[in-house]
Amino acid sequence: MIGDLLLALTLAPLVALIGCLVVHRRRFCEALNLVASAVAFACALPIPFLLDGQAQLFWDNYVILDRASAWVILCTSIVYFLASIYAIGYMRLLDEEERLYRFYALFAGFGFTTLVGPLMNSVGIYWIAIELTTLVSTFLVAFERVAESMEAAWKYIMIVSAGISLALLGTILFYWSGTFVLGPSYQMTWGVLSAAAPRMNPTLIVLAFLLVLVGYGTKVGLAPMHSWLPDAHSESPAPVSAMLSGALLNTAMIGIVRFLGITRAADLGQLPQLVLVAFGVLSLLIGALFIVRQQGIKRLMAYSSIEHMGVVALGFGFGGALGVAGALYHMLNHSLNKSLMFFGAGNMMRAYGTKQILDIAHVGRFFPTQGALWLAGAIAITGAPPFGLFLSEFTIMRAGLKPSFSWAVYVMAVLLIVIFVGFMNHFRCMYYGVGAAETPPARGHVSAWCTAPMWLALAPLLVLGLWWPGGIWSYLTSIAQSLPGVP
Amino acid sequence: MLIQHLGPIASSLFSLLAIASLLLSFVMLGSRWLKNYLYAFATESWVIAALSATIGYYGNYPELYLIAILTLLFRGLLLPYLIWRIIRRLEVDREIHEILQPSSSLVIGALFVMFALAVSYRVATAYHLELTVAVLALTVMLSMKLIGFLMLAVRHEAISQILGLLVLENGIFLGSQILVPGMPLLIELVILFDLLIIVACFGVLVGYLLTHVGTTSTLDLKRLVG
Amino acid sequence: MHESPPATHQQNACSFVRSASPAVAAGRTAPMSARDVLLQIGQVLTVLLLAPLIQGIIVQFEERVQRAQGPGIFQPYRDLWKLFHKQIVVPQTASWLFWAAPVVAFTCMLTVPILIPVLTDFPLPLSDMGDILGGGLILTLGSFLIVLAGLDTSSAYGGIGSSRAVMVAILAEPTLILVFVGITLLAKAMLPFVVNHLLVSNWAAYWSPAHLFLVAAFFILLLVETDRMPIHSSTHIEVYMIEEGRILEYSGPLLALLKWASAMKQFILYTIFCNVLILPWGLSVKGTALGALGAAAGLVIKFTLVACLVVVVETSQSRLRFYRYQEPLAASFLLAVLSIIGTQLS
Questions:
Q1: Which CA distances in Å does C222 have to B37, B143, C83, C95?
Q2: Alpha-carbon gap, residue C46 to A33, rounded angstroms
Q3: Looking at residue C280, what DSSP letter applies?
Q4: pLDDT tens for residues C2-18?
């Protein structure tokens, strides 16, 4: 049953990719992509409920499905689905009829590679999956053929490829340390590595883990490896930005988490978690500083992504059941919320014809429902109750109140307040039009395709903030306890 | 592990090939002309292919012969040819505005090699390894990585950055051949082809850069700040 | 003043030498025999007499390669003869340094052959007066005094020549020291004789990356220190003068001494290059007269080979601009560092 669901989940985007390349008609591509994403979502939704505690291996041990990967796939498929709905309305505004089939083909490919990433059991093939996501998304970022997009795409592929090659080095070093224990040739899966980890030499594992952390951290967007993120997320079309922020960062994070589990099995003490916490705090700091002085809408959202990935890193760094559960919960909330924010930003960009915050004014008056949704999303993303992000950030802060990490909690709290103030200030400018003229925007109507996903994103966010069912909590804590994977 | 059972001829052959490829990466670092980079990179790929074949011979890993031939063909011939085609489309032959002079890059590269040696020593003594080939392989791998990053940082031409990235990958490939020759064939093959796809993507992107930005020098890519 | 330090120094040199080879030890046990003293004097005389010949060979080859007639390989002897018979003209602004510098430089160049293997491959008495590093320092002393002499006459060209020479020296000296350190680490001894024995007896050491990189690094330094391309500046256009600028004010026998000293410096560097690094064969083992003569003839042949290589490099390279002098020297530095790392890894 689960195997069939997985197969459908991964084959649907692949079919959409091939279909869009074969048939070049716009409506067909839109529909095919939407159907594929709906199928992926429908298959991903029941999987966490069907899993018991054990990880399941498929396809000759190449595919692993444990609770962590099921959770990440759920987040990814939600974003993929919402972004596909939004893309239909958004991409029609771009007046690029002839090239749209390429967009949908690349988009389906992007969905495929991000869905497949967490499923990979072999560490080397996981790396290859991440590399493929980079390649596919570069062309999505460069889709609008303007100079800024080219610059963003170039920075993206350069920095991320260089960073990921560091992760490859770390993987090779992990393999090498395994050869001392397991012999010269073995299948390097997460389970095998964590089983052999206690017998591996700590020096080499520390080196390898740091390399992997920096490498995949580049992909996640942790500071100071984050410099590609604001450019790539702001210059790509809005549905792609939502996928990049909501889906891709999670897929890279799960790799870091799995390696963290291996180092925990190797019993290295506090060092890996301390480094992760340091990266998290730095990301929060950079996010806060740049959010306060930001001038463009989508760059604002991108820095908010950096900040939230810092919070997730803090959660995993703090460790323990609370920390890991909080971080995983934060992944889901962030995926929903960031999609909502990027959808709103994309709508406002197309409506007002500008990316600058100062040129957007009186959103609430010209777009009542849109504006309300977007403002609710803004309040949510800065961590205010009653939305889900508040609960997850609060959980993470509780997890960090151990003696060794309490400094990080205080810093995190201060920075979250700073971010709240900065973010809300920008929205105040946009909603209450400080100094801007009262001209109506160029395009006064936002299509239903662009509004519906915002409703669909906001509703679960509200629900998850008000009601935290025990089932989810026990699911997440079981992930925390079983991180290293199949022994 | 293979390198624990090497005779003196084999280990000196390995060290010669490894150091030759490190030297070639320094040649890349110290040259200004894009064609020189390319030739040094092609030669370096051939040296690494020779290393693969040698390891396959001494370690009885017949699949490494296949990897050696594929490396020679793809990394040694096809990749340089693709990059040569990209260079031919561009109007630039060399780095015109240098951020860091080649001589200073060479000196910094030497410092990187010393740092890599220190790290490798630390790792080797943790394992009580007296094996100099292991230390050499680690040193060469880490220093080629650092040199690749240096090239990415101080070169502003798009081609130089691509070649810097390829030097990074070459370094990892070299290290993995010596340290972990038994790594599953699938992974090695896919990484090899992955490089090909990367360079193809780069070719397309460089075309876009030329068309829409007008230049391939990243010194002009300054529109996105803050 | 103290007797013990030289004695212990000699003893340390002894222990190094004894551990190297029994032939060397056999040569060492007979203290200060007449034959050894004669050989030592012979070494100095070889350097003294053959240095202009090598200079002549290099210049002649170069001219021939460029399809000119060439002045003949004995021309430097004729130049020296002519200069010794000319009048000395001293500028009014010169001081005692003007007179002292050529003499001291000449003497330094006479001292260094005592320390390095020129004719024999065993150390002669007084060979452990200084090791490789000491030899390098004495060479630098000579160059330093000539630089001071260029400044001493307070002429503009002397000033330019001296400042440029010092700049090149600043870039080259650290690399030279590193090369010497590399040589030391290669053989784990500071005497050049031990290195010579190691390279002759051990093929693996000869072809090791450490040795090959040292050869490459030293070759670049050779080109720089002997004022060849791509640093070449012995044209008589003032802007490019480094070597000529320093000695522009000299005339007569003093100029002859300076020219001879620079020829000897070239000879010494070639000797270190060949006998210690790249072609360590052909040295006399027993120390007989026939062996010494054969070693001298071998020297000329070896140097001719190196001279061919230098001429090839010189005619295929163009002169670098001044601010680019750091590039070959940075490459040399890099090769020296790589060779030192190579010695650590084997």
A1: 27, 28, 27, 32
A2: 88
A3: -
A4: 444 444 444 444 444 44
**Neighbour subunits, A (≥3 Cβ pairs < 8 A):** B
Which helix (H) or strand (E) is C307 found in, with range? helix C289-316
Chain B residue numbers with beta carbons less than 8 Å from the beta carbon of A186 are 182
Residue pLDDT, tens place only, C255-291: 899 889 888 988 888 888 888 888 777 777 777 778 8
Q: Which residues make Cβ contacts (< 8 Å) with residue C304, sequence separation at least 6?
A: C57
For the record, the structure tokens of A300 come out as 């604002």
Which residue, chain included where needed, has tokens 């370094």?
A: B171
**B225 is a domain residue:** no
Return the amino acid letter for A90.
Y
- Give tens-digit pLDDT for C22-36: 444 444 444 567 888
What is residue C2's predicted lDDT score, i.e. its pLDDT? 40
Name the nearest CA neighbour of A221 among A259, A261, A255, A253.
A253
How many folded domains does chain B comprise?
A: 1
Q: Name the residue type at position A6.
A: L
Alpha carbon distance A332, A340 (integer Å): 13
Question: Hey, are the CB atoms on B103 and C329 less than 8 Å from each other?
Answer: yes
CA A295, CA C343: separation in Å to the nearest integer? 56
| Record: contact B139-C345, CB cut-off 8 A | yes
Is pLDDT above 90 for A287?
A: yes
DSSP string over C127-189: GGGS-HHHHHHHHHHHHHHHHHHHHHTT-HHHHHHHHHHHHHHHHHHHHHHHHHHHHHHHHTS
> Which residues 40-99 in chain B show a CB within 8 A of chain A?
none
CB pairs under 8 A between A and B: 138
Whether this prediction's pTM lies above 0.90 is answered by: no
Measured between alpha carbons, how far is A283 from A213 in angstroms, rounded to an integer?
A: 14
The domain spans of chain A are: 2-481
From CA B165, how far away is CA B154, in angstroms rounded?
13
**DSSP string over A242-261:** HHIIIIIHHHHHHHHHHHHH
Q: Model confidence over C137-169: pLDDT tens digits?
A: 888 888 888 888 888 887 887 888 888 888 888
Distance, CA of C102 to CA of A262 (rounded, Å): 72
Give C66's strand partners. none
Q: Quick check: C271 and C299 in contact, CB under 8 A?
A: yes
Decide which of A208 and A58 is more confident.
Answer: A208
Domain span holding position B149: 2-220
Q: What is the dihedral sign for C-alpha A329, A331, A334, A336?
A: negative
**Nearest CB neighbour to C204, from listed B12, B26, B30:** B12
